[in-house]
Amino acid sequence: MPSWFSRIFAVKPTVVVWQNGTTASNVSPATLPAVVRAVQLLASDIARLPVRVERADGSVIDGHPVAQLLSRDASRWQSGFDFRRFVTGCALTSGNGLALIRRANDGTVAELQPIPDGAATAQFTDEGVEYRIKDVKLAADQVVHIGAYPDLDFPAWFVSPLDACAPAMQLAADQDAAHSALVKTGSTGKISLSHPGAMSDQAVQAIRDAWQTMHAQPDGASRPLILREGMKAERISQETSTSNLESRRFSVQEIARAYMVPPEMLFQQGGGALASQAETARAYVDGGLSLWTSVWSAEIERKLLQPGEFLRFDTDVLLRGNLRDAGMALSKLVLGGVLAPNDARRRLGLPPIAGMDTPTVSMPGGAAAAVGPTDTNEDQEADDAP
Fold it and tell me: Which residues have CB under 8 Å from 213's CB, separation 6+?
């Protein structure tokens, strides 16, 4: 009997496993350096960010078992860092990162074991989403599912940036293949050889073979081209290092747009307009990284945490900047009474000091600024009174 999903939407409920396509040049977009850099950057940062479980009032639950699984040992054979990096990498590459939830006898989470990429499928049933690994059926509360771009044809599945932006990714792969072929021919580009007289097919083929043997390789770039009988050589395509760099810059920008990562972090000459390292880090955290922290938090809170518990990723470690700039900014906040000294020390990753948890105003003029507006108005009225 068909499920409610197929009856309502008249579509096939079983998901189609997406495969990363390759271009006609046999270059996979997944192997492009900018794609590898983007995947490793996002996956590694999600893996190394400190996590904590908080209550609704913002207080931290120390030693929460879920936080321990994500930070220390996710399973008997994999650390929390490797687990988060693997699952996020699968989601970035194929669209879906899955992990099996193993529980103890009392119902608490004991292990999180990643499922190999492409080993599982999903389908809608009357009880909800059901995952399948060969002949094994798993309910939704038995699987952690981290996804990239939603699949509009199947709400329980996702597609990767490689598939969602397939035309741009294939163009980048074709450009990379063209650059490789150009380097293999000594960067000579396409050459037209013309002869003033008629030539037989055998002569034309002999010239092609001679060009292929003598010049269509890196060593042939330094060999002189000797033409006889009034032959002429003309360059058809102007392939230069400048055009190659421009093409690569365009490809990196398209890849950065797909993964929502600043191009400066993928290619030094990505063509971005951000002014400083701090601005680049802020754009990276607010853009691509915040999406993945939200995806992880929503999935963990839904399937592993109790009501009123929330998973938080600490992204401040990526926004501290250098010690000089951070120290100057924090010192002004401490002197102005905005932060306590221990607040500033925590932001710098330093241990707190006893007796330094209360903000105090030490900046010249700070005491006057700390006076309330009501008191200031009363003093002014007293001065103006006859």
Answer: none
Running along the chain, 386 residues long, what does each successive block of 10 average in pLDDT?
50 42 59 92 95 92 93 92 96 95 90 91 88 90 94 90 91 81 64 77 81 66 70 66 74 90 74 64 90 95 94 86 76 87 83 87 57 48 49
Rounded CA separation 92/276 (Å): 27
Spatial CB neighbours of 188, under 8 Å, sequence gap ≥ 6: 215, 216, 220, 221, 239
Q: How many other C-beta atoms can be found within 10 angstroms of the C-beta atom of residue 267?
A: 20
Domain layout of the chain by residue ranges: 13-187+241-319, 193-238, 333-384
Closest CA to 311 of 295, 324, 334: 295
pLDDT at position 188: 60
Length of the chain: 386
Contact between 78 and 41 (Cβ < 8 Å): no
User: pTM surpassing 0.90?
Assistant: no
Query: Any idea which residue has 């072929």 for tokens?
Result: 181
CA-based nearest residue to 33, from 265, 189, 246: 265
* Gap between the Cα atoms of 314 and 296, Å rounded: 13
Structure tokens that stand for 76 in this block: 């008997």
**Tokens 């993928």 map to which residue?**
266
Per the structure block, which two tokens stand in for 108? 């608490």
Q: Is the Cβ–Cβ distance between 66 and 101 less than 8 Å?
A: no
* pLDDT of amino acid 37: 93
For the chain, the C-alpha Rg in angstroms (whole number) is 30
3-state secondary structure of 164: helix
